[in-house]
Design goal:
Arc Repressor Mutant, subunit A; NAD (chains A, B); alpha/beta; Redox-sensing transcriptional repressor Rex (chains A, B); transcription (chains A, B); 210 residues; homodimer; DNA-binding; WH_DNA-bd_sf (chains A, B); globular; seven-stranded mixed β-sheet; Rex_actinobacterial-type (chains A, B)
Chain lengths: 210, 210
DNA sequence: TAGATTGTTAATCGATTAACAATC
DNA sequence: TAGATTGTTAATCGATTAACAATC
């Protein structure tokens, strides 16, 4: 049992619901309906209930969901009950931005090491981290129990860096380079493409002209 | 006719194909099959052909696609034949990274103005741009024919900034704040959420434990 | 109780894939 | 011609939505 396949879109939305709920909680709101959540994040109420139903029964019929409880449940489902240590390769502008990115901290992510193979960058400081040579990654991965790595290097270098990160013991990669990485089956990869969404906008605007 | 609805996933992939093809072109490769593209970006060959079929017949049976031609077609479809000027609000770390982001330039995007309402940031320089007060946005939007704006401010400020950007004449927003924006129907919005993909990774890793 | 809202099933909708005729 | 690969249709697959019984 529990062989039920969960759509990745459901996980994506769960992450969005979870953060929306935290904002409600901050405002002192204690109860929400699926309709409230739906309106807040721009999906249908049925969608919200269906997404939650994959994981259990969290609401009360006739009443709705307790905000604090639902935050706890969504955080648990997403694997965020415990904090995660991350390492990152690439000490460029994007890398620097990610190290100080507030949203990561808020969700329990902590970048514990920044690496680069550019000698001019090694030794530099980004926030309170010293940029380290790649050779030191395996040690840090082991010491800080790191399972996830962020790739913030140019496309050309991304595959080589991915190989090194995997050899260092990482099981999951968040890749900001706009290329498709080849990795062993046990390694999870997700790409964040900063340019694709922009091109969806240009596509839509270009259509308007006609 | 031509009322055929095109899936947004198709546009997303087209953007990815387009950039993959440019890399092939740089390597001097002149012809590709749908299978080559599929393998290069991690989808099925049928998917590639179907995606292209929404827009025309670009290949030669028994041969494949001419790389340079297909680049031209995909670029045209995505509305990227002409360069786009962008404005951005938010001169923080993320904003700074985006101004210098190579991938944007490569695809014909140019950030022509950076704005902030933080007095300590106004007047500062990011790359070769001076950070300007929001009041100057309408003028710049008009002068540079800007239609798309980037939101790189904290979540709290995002809705207010979006309202101002729309009033300044923008028709499309690329939103890096992890909240759902309320905008008029004619305004296109896409969110880039840096944290969601990371939470898909933690979800998957957390599943492994069991 | 009456009103509200969940949890869940079945119906609908849409996207992906398989398969093959067309054709280079 | 034989082999290869496209363009396209039909079949499959999967996700969303509508609807309603359950129940607070």
């Amino acid at each position: 049992m529990k062989a039920l396949k969960i759509p990745e879109a459901t996980i994506t939305r769960l992450s969005i619901y979870s953060r929306f709920l935290k904002r409600l909680d901050k405002k002192g709101i204690t109860t929400v309906s699926s309709g409230d959540i739906a309106e807040g994040v721009g999906v249908s109420p049925a969608q919200v209930r269906k997404d939650l139903a994959y994981f259990g029964e969290f609401g009360t019929r006739g009443v709705g969901y307790n905000v604090k409880d639902l935050i706890r449940y969504t955080v648990k489902i997403l694997g965020l009950s415990e904090p995660w240590n991350l390492v990152m390769v690439g000490a460029g502008n994007l890398g620097s931005a990610l190290v100080t990115y507030r949203e990561f901290k808020d969700r329990g992510f902590s970048i514990v090491g920044v690496f680069d193979n550019d000698l001019t960058k090694i030794g530099k400081r980004i926030a309170d981290l010293e940029v380290l040579p790649l050779e030191e990654m395996p040690e840090m991965v082991k010491e800080y129990n790191v399972r996830i790595g962020i790739i913030a290097v140019p496309s050309k270098a991304a595959q080589d860096i991915a190989d090194i990160m995997i050899k260092s013991g990482l099981e999951a990669l968040l890749n900001f380079a706009p290329i498709s990485l080849n990795v062993p089956d046990y390694v999870e990869v997700r790409n964040v493409d900063l340019s694709v969404k922009l091109e969806i906008l240009t596509f839509n605007l270009a259509l308007r002209e006609k």
